């Protein structure tokens, strides 16, 4: 699944019935994706028809037959069409497949009504998700997270970032990434999700990342340090005629070492009351090690404060 509302709906639906949610990132090829899917031993696979990466379109449907052949536990493949022409495609070569519309119709009562959701009451340590590492140091490892892991992001958004109901959280990361899992829980706080799919650089209408934050009155966003580097090299700045960052509370950076130049570039763009900070976390924790403190100074490019509730220690090669 790409970074879209159907992925959020699917995750919440799975959690509500006590199912376990997980999967590969959409840009993986058929072989790499099938390894992740097979390890999950899933009954259901939900997939979009295509994935946009930096303006380039990749077909996911081309991978589904191979994935199905290598995942014997699969009972149903549900395809989410993002283009009208997808509905006219022949999917007979994809075993046990259907489009999302017909799958949802099958859940209605005989009277054509949608039954109410029954939320399973399960213990704190009941597993809700499996998040896979990137595979940079070998085969991707699947970390299993319990329902308790959903509380970590809530602590970050409320106690560290001071986000309130109605604030807009901007996310640019596709499903399968820890950063995607990180944001979904904030819906329970009344925080709005702005899901951006495709590219944060130059879009078809000539706008860029900063214009999106301005137009949609974003309060919180996270960028990889490498993305900040590229935006600066592109000389990306917001449209001065529509510039509005009064709602922007926090911009976090991470993923790799953040440089002083990254802070300086963002400082040229946002208002003085926007906190620019560093966020580091991991797949294994399904969350963050570092925190945000509005009442303390920030020294670029240092981590400002450790996260609440996380025991952090720095060790050398000898432990």
From TrEMBL:
InterPro entries for the chain: AMP-binding_CS, AMP-dep_synth/lig_dom, ANL_N_sf
AMP-dependent synthetase/ligase domain residues: 1-311
Gene3D superfamilies reported for this sequence: N-terminal domain of ligase-like
Originating organism: Trichonephila clavata
Top-rank taxon: Eukaryota
Matching Pfam families: AMP-binding
Any one GO molecular function term: acetoacetate-CoA ligase activity
Record protein name field: Acetoacetyl-CoA synthetase
């Amino acid at each position: 699944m790409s970074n879209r509302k159907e992925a959020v709906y699917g995750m919440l639906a799975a959690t509500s019935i006590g199912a376990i949610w997980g999967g590969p990132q959409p840009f993986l090829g058929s072989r790499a994706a099938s390894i992740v899917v097979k390890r999950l031993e899933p009954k259901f696979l939900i997939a979009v028809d295509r994935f946009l990466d930096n303006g380039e379109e990749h077909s996911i449907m081309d991978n589904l037959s191979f994935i199905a052949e290598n995942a014997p536990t699969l009972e149903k493949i549900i395809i989410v069409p993002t283009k009208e022409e997808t509905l006219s495609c022949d999917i007979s070569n994809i075993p046990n497949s259907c489009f999302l519309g017909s799958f949802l119709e099958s859940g209605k009562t005989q009277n054509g009504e949608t039954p109410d959701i029954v939320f399973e009451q399960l213990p704190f340590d009941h597993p809700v998700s499996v998040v896979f590492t990137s595979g940079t140091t070998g085969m991707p490892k699947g970390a299993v997270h319990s329902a308790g892991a959903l509380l970590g992001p809530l602590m970050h958004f409320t106690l560290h970032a001071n986000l309130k109901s109605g604030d807009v959280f901007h996310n640019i990361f596709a499903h399968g990434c820890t950063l995607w899992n990180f944001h979904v829980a904030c819906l329970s706080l009344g925080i709005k999700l702005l899901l951006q799919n495709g590219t944060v650089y130059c879009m078809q209408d000539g706008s860029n990342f900063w214009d999106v934050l301005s137009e949609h009155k974003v309060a919180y966003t996270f960028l990889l340090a490498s993305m900040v580097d590229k935006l600066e090299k592109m000389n990306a700045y917001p449209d001065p005629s529509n510039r509005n960052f009064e709602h922007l509370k926090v911009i976090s950076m991470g993923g790799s070492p953040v440089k002083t130049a990254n802070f300086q570039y963002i400082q040229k763009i946002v208002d003085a009351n926007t906190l620019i900070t560093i966020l580091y976390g991991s797949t294994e924790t399904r969350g963050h090690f570092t925190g945000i403190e509005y009442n303390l100074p920030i020294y670029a490019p240092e981590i400002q404060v450790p996260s609440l509730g996380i025991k952090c220690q720095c060790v050398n090669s000898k432990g």
